Amino acid sequence: MRRIGLCAFLFACAVAAAAPAQADPLALWHIVHDQCVPNQINRHNPSPCALVNLAGGYVVLKDRRGATQFLVLPTARITGIESAALLSPRVPDYMQDAWAARRFVQERALGKLTRADLSLAVNSIYGRSQNQLHIHVDCLRQDVRDALARHRNAIGDKWQPFPVALAGHHYIARRLVLLDLADVNPFRTLADEVPEARANMGAYTLVVAGATFAGKPGFIVLADHADPALGDFANGESLQDHECAVAHATK
Q1: pTM (predicted TM-score)
Q2: Over the range 44-72, which residues count as b (16 or more CB within 10 Å of their CB) and which as e?
Q3: Would you tell me how many other CB atoms lie within 10 Å of the CB of residue 41?
Q4: d(CA 137, CA 69)
């Protein structure tokens, strides 16, 4: 029994030693608040951010993961999708800012990108490690892009279940026939139009993908509600490909 107990103890120690340290949930906030913004103000240099827009209240930061992934973050303290500030009519157009930031992805991609290749994603509180709102700007996974294209005509102006699973999860979808997101707030669209979403925004993930409808530019907006008991953490970022394989795929 002593030998078994010792083995179990050593195994537990090995597992604990191998486990990664818990990430600081405010790491992104400190980068924005303590580095990017002061550097822009004092030195006219946004580093380590790629862009600091003080008037617009946001920064663009290259994520450490992937070849093409960028993050758009507010310069204000906003925890995430659950923040009531995102539903205010006075809030900056962070999604539009993120869509404009797709140029950084395009610059790093090893090939030409179309509108339908690009996406924005915000994870739920269950699917994120950081407590500062950050919008993932990157390419879609090729299988996700192709599924959206195949079922594009089934997506209407009201939220409804998307016909097939995306990255193993079932989303609801609606379309926006607009050139950009300057006149629409996808956070408010979700809160206003999906029953019970406003009271439980933190459990949702939101993905916005570029699209074209009958020759007109638009977007496909996707949302998923977390169900951790079933392994669904509402991580819309999983629909993205941070190596951007679609940039060199046959269109």
Answers
A1: 0.91
A2: eebeebbbbbeebbbbbbbeeebbbbbbb
A3: 11
A4: 6
- Report how far residue 47's alpha carbon sits from residue 74's, in angstroms, rounded to the nearest whole number: 16
**DSSP for 181-200, written as a single string:** STT--HHHHHHHHSTTTGGG
- Cα 79–Cα 171–Cα 221 angle in degrees, nearest 5: 65
The class level of CATH for 76-248 reads: alpha beta
- Beta strand 118-122 with 216-225 is unpaired
Give the whole-angstrom CA distance, residue 228 versus residue 120: 23
Cα separation, 181 vs 223, in Å, equals 17
The per-residue pLDDT for 14 is 33
92 close to 187: Cβ distance less than 8 angstroms: no
The values of phi and psi at residue 74, to 5°, are -70, 150
pLDDT at res. 17: 34
Closest CA to 221 of 151, 152, 158, 173: 173
Whole-Å CA distances, 215 to 119, 210, 218: 19, 13, 9
**Cα radius of gyration rounded to whole Å, the chain:** 20
> Per the structure block, which two tokens stand in for 67?
């070849």
